[in-house]
User: Fold this.
Amino acid sequence: MTYFFVILFIALIAYVIYFTVVRARTVVNSPYNQRQDSFAETVVRGDIVDRNGNVLATTTVGDDGSETRSYPYGNVFSHVVGYSDSDLGNTGLESVENFELLTSNAFFLEKLQNQFTDSKNRGDTVVTTLDAELQQASYDALGDNRGAVVVMEASTGKILSMVSKPDYDPNTILSDWSTLNTDEDNSPLLNRATQGSYAPGSTFKIVTTLAFMRQNSNYANYTYDCIGEITTGDTTIHCFDGTAHGYEDLRSSIANSCNASFANIGTLLDIDGYRDTAEDLLFNSDLPSVLGYTKSSFALTSDSGEAEIMMTAMGQGKTTVSPYHMALITQAIANGGTLMEPYLVDSVTNYTGTEIRRNVPKSYRRLMTSDEAAQLKEYMAAVVEEGTGSVLSGASYSAAGKTGTAEYSMSDGEKTHSWFMGFTNVDNPELVISVITEGSDGSASGKAVSIARQILDSYYD
Assistant:
């Protein structure tokens, strides 16, 4: 009995330490934790800035002591930075970094003086990885389109830009709340970058290609004679505009985004192995993410019919994914197979700029071998050099990627989402980009790659 109670006591102490140290930030950030109210009584909420010091969120104090949270860039950072409101709570980085923003690491003598004068301390500053100029360029390039853009550093996992539209103005969130919260058609409060759930279209052919490579050591010898369509049983799948691509190998199948060839590849795959490859790429899995997200889904099983398999192989069917997840897959390919853990906060400083803590790049997981990543990079480069991503050829930077269109409605004419995923400086990858636009008509399949070109041009030029 003595041993039992000693062990129980040690376990209790260990849990208390875990709860108050390891889980401290999560507990404090909970909207149900009233301790936040006591923090706000003594601390003026700190600033959120981009990586160059541009202020993204700040608190001004009036002569009467009233505090106003303002967002100098308005709608541009609405989803990633979020909002902070005493009535509505916090979202985005305002929520994730709530603990830091309501903690003051000002000089102790200053804090002591403020205590005696009944004055508030200034909260710490959250220095993000975001780039205000690149964010503005992404916002402008997306224009009036519904959709999302994610831009990351390939080698570090730093998120430089995250845009979602439709959006909202966090400066007027309280007065606009009723309208925003009931607008089901546009869902302006939804962060489509991380929470959107879309059919991936032809971008998923990268996943299908990897599965085929893993199951066929002689994949380089693959050939297919495309006549513009493929029919198996009662199912006929057409290539875009009914184009007959002729004889193709795996490289040209990707470059031309040949639906018929990939539907054929789907019929050659072992479905359990296909599923394993998809799950290696984090489908049906948790994602490394600072912000809330929707899991991606790969629905094929060994019982799936041939029609569903063919549709899935070309990026249709029941498979769903977010733009953020596609950016992660692209980053792993660009980074030699290793996914770097994505992050949005570079450092935390006190309000005078003295650094309190800094985040450093770290590996999350190896999603594929370096040889597999190198081969996929070569195929994605062909998409830009000679295929459906040629909009990006001839730029001041090299690029590789994969375009995609995802049909989602035939009731009122063909409706598609337009996709692009890719990276720049192929030999030494620098930027990773993922773009989706919703609801294009069938002729606008290249809209996403054109938006990507505009964003990347603004960054390099």
